[in-house]
Amino acid sequence: MRKVICAGETILDILFKNNQPIAAVPGGSSFNCIISLGRAGVPAFFLGETGEDAVGDQIAAFLKENQVSTDYFTTRKDIRTAVSLAYLNEKNDAQYVFYKDKPKPNDNFCIPDFQKEDILVLGSYYAICPSLRAQVKQLLHANKEAGGMVYYDINFRKSHQQELEALTPAIQENFTLASIVRGSADDFEIMYGTREAEVIYKEKIAPYCPVFICTNAHKELKVCLPDRVLAFPITPIKTVSTIGAGDNFNAGFVYGLMRYGVKKEDLLQMENHQWEKLVNCGLYFAANVCQSIHNSIDPKLDLSCL
Asked: Which of 36, 120, 158, 305 is deepest in the core (most CB within 10 A)?
């Protein structure tokens, strides 16, 4: 059976509003994505790790509660589970303070049993971190050899801007091995000094990967392909928190790939209305998350309308 494997960091997000804590939610970019996919009934696996501590136990239990396999998930005595403080502003956007150990290789790292058309989702600093690069490359090449699909979310934060030159070879290698590259206009403003999707695609993405999705908060989303650029408007909503919005766009889009049986070789052959279906799945998941303090979709979210 076709499955989705998300690889990345785990963290406990403690949310603050008006300087008062309002929730503590397990998170991490790929983690948020896989929780939503598990809740949506997709065969879901998470490849990651936590410390052998109370927070790590909470995160491991959360995966199992949400129908996500922990076959590739490990706990380690030599690290502490990461924690973030997320301060929500008047627009309910978050400013973060992180408390975490420096990433280091996992001696018990396990390569999944990839099958043809499985989907590997990864991104953020995890996907380009120098100390984890050897492990990430093993993942990418194992997936490629099996004939799988890679959905790569750049999710590049300003805190790593000074490292961009050193990290660029890893980013470009990820582009080359990806089937779909997704990033936000905020990512590209930090990385390349522009928010223009067409310019970013032509100069930075297209030489490596033919499929590019650029989100831009409440402004229109663009899908760039070799023969066309598609633009999709965003329906305004009242937000409670924007934490996990991009992660859950990813989850919804990947859910659409699974639901509609889209394979890697189909991506450049699809009609505009097929792209619209996939994008709508992503926007539907993202909108649901933005209307709560949680990092993943409501377990009872109605998916029959997609």
From this structure: 36
Q: Angle 51-56-60 (CA atoms, 0-180°, nearest 5)?
A: 125
41-45 CB contacts, 8 Å cutoff, 24+ apart: 41/67, 42/3, 42/4, 42/254, 42/255, 42/258, 43/1, 43/2, 43/3, 43/4, 43/69, 44/3, 44/4, 44/6, 44/68, 44/69, 45/3, 45/4, 45/5, 45/6, 45/69, 45/71, 45/72, 45/112
Helix residue spans in the chain (DSSP H):
29-39, 54-65, 133-146, 164-177, 185-192, 197-200, 245-259, 272-290
Averaged pLDDT for residues 55-77: 94
DSSP at 102: P
The three-state secondary structure class of 172 is helix
Q: Which residues, 6 or more positions from 272, have their beta carbon under 8 angstroms from its beta carbon?
A: 228, 230
Q: Residue 278 has which token pair?
A: 């996939």
Give the pLDDT score at 48.
94
State pTM to two decimals. Answer: 0.94
Which of 165, 208, 217 shows the shortest CA–CA distance to 187?
217
CA–CA separation, 110 vs 99, rounded Å?
Answer: 26
Q: What is the pLDDT of residues 197-236, one digit of tens each?
A: 999 999 999 999 999 999 998 899 999 999 999 999 999 9
> DSSP string of 39-68?
HTT--EEEEEEEESSHHHHHHHHHHHHTTE
- Note whether 104 and 252 are within 8 A (CB): no
How far is the C-alpha of 214 from the C-alpha of 255, rounded, in Å? 18
Residue that the structure tokens 């100069």 belong to: 203
| Helices and strands: H and E segment counts in the chain | 8, 14
208-227 burial, b at 16+ Cβ within 10 Å, e below that, comes to: bbbbbbbbbeeeebbbbbee
Q: What are phi and psi of 96, to 5 degrees?
A: -110, 145
